[in-house]
Amino acid sequence: MKTQTKSILVPLFIILLVTAGCRKNYSLSENQIILFQFDYLNYAWGYQHHGFLIDSEGNILRYENPEGWNFPDSELNLTSAKAAENISKCFPAGKQIDKDELLKYASYINNIAQSRVTALKNAGADGGTSQYICYQFSENSGTYEGHVVKMEGDFTCENLNYYSKKVTLWMKKIQEQETY
To answer: What's the rounded Cα separation, in Å, for the pair 109 and 116?
Structure first.
């Protein structure tokens, strides 16, 4: 009887492990427009603020010293209305990310959102700070919930999730192609 139970439970356990490890297809909310943001801010030597947003269509939307920019709150949240205002202050970079590539990186957002971020460290002065952020959209509140992927410059911290390194490298590659 014990061997018969074992022969049934072991394959069942293996099947559960395999299916639990499978990635589910990631689909974007119809209402989510912004997925990722690179933001550089420096108050030393004159005000400098530039970066780009990546929208749900794969468009790269740049901004340079926009007036009246809506910064996320202390928890990196941004209302839909403020996000829409920010988008209106951007201009298209003229490049679009392939849909499959975009979905690949967007599928990492939930994992990054659930991970811890290292403590913020002061690493310099007068060099400015670059932030790599991903967003989840809350249908209930109509709010974009931002999550630090990585922060570099005067202040540093990073998300400890495995996928955050992949997203950072991908966004840096995009950033290198943009000239400010």
So the answer is: 13
